[in-house]
């Protein structure tokens, strides 16, 4: 939770902020920014709400007062409080690096809007800390880096259950990365040093799936020239991932249920029971409970598999991650093709965010690979993506209103999209030169750096 500090001579404004903020530090009675810093040196403050007069003091430039604060609290944000006739000071403060301003008399709706944005910024900072947590191994860091609240919830569940022996059922549409998540669970479990074995149940003929799973003895059927241990045997001590579990036949459902209950298997052609120590992760894009109601899938097996269900959201539910997915896929293609493509042109990103992605992440990966092969510029352009997607980029900025979210969030989404487009084109025009970009935009280099960090852009991308 954010730790705030209110510093204003206006009693009513102070009370308004107190009513709006749950976690609040005591008011500080000071007369200058220098006194403010001295009074808060030993406190951790995330955001200062400061009256402009305290920042200005007897100086002409408000930036000096801000610098006093950042000298001792470099990571703190500042919201400037001004009278409605003194907005120029707020503009000067924002140009110097303050995050926002509020005008007296304070309105509850305006305070709430600013607080919600500050909370989102804090969540983003916590996300960075979460990525630095010792729990995630190095290979997983790029995967678990997400801007989607839905995916953060998924990864939170992975953290909670990865180290257990619990059976997991992954659900969601085709192409969302169920096998990738299964490997993530295994790689963070106590079984990480043992095998991870995968079987696509829908790709194996019914007559062979029992042998594939449990193994067989020599001569058990025509073509069985030697003993095999099957997928369960190969996964001993580790994890067995059963993809598209909803496609197995009723007879195989009974046998799999027996394995889950007794932890033993019987190989085809043998009457000997073999104990197995295997963790099961199953996945399906079908509605298994619906299949149970129709009588095509056993309810007792469903309950055995559905011990720890995880639903993975589709790409259209997590469009916040499109840019980071694209960046990862572009980097992979650069390595494979020997190219040096930086990223997506802003118009391409705008089109991607309008598209419904029926093929999910897999479709995005394929489109990026094709575009990288065709692209001769540093940014993937509209002419190198499929027509049905490029046609959606009739404008650079998406002006369609998303009424599925609150007004404040919808407004912020549009602001974020505009910031990304503006910043990308600005850095491209200035060839990644921060000072030049800041001067052209009329803001400080500190603000440029904060925006670049927010939108995961680096100056090297534009050189």
Automatic annotation (TrEMBL):
Upper lineage:
Bacteria, Pseudomonadati, Thermodesulfobacteriota, Desulfovibrionia, Desulfovibrionales
Q: Which domain of life is it from?
A: Bacteria
Q: Which InterPro entries match?
A: AAA+_ATPase, AAA_lid_NorR, CheY-like_superfamily, Homeodomain-like_sf, P-loop_NTPase, Sigma_54_int, Sigma_54_int_dom_ATP-bd_2, Sigma_54_int_dom_CS
Annotated Sigma-54 factor interaction domain residues: 144-373
GO BP: regulation of DNA-templated transcription
Keyword DNA-binding listed? The answer is yes
Q: What name does this protein carry?
A: DNA-binding transcriptional response regulator, NtrC family, contains REC, AAA-type ATPase, and a Fis-type DNA-binding domains
What GO molecular functions are on record for this protein? ATP binding; DNA binding
Which keywords accompany this UniProt record? ATP-binding, DNA-binding, Nucleotide-binding, Transcription, Transcription regulation
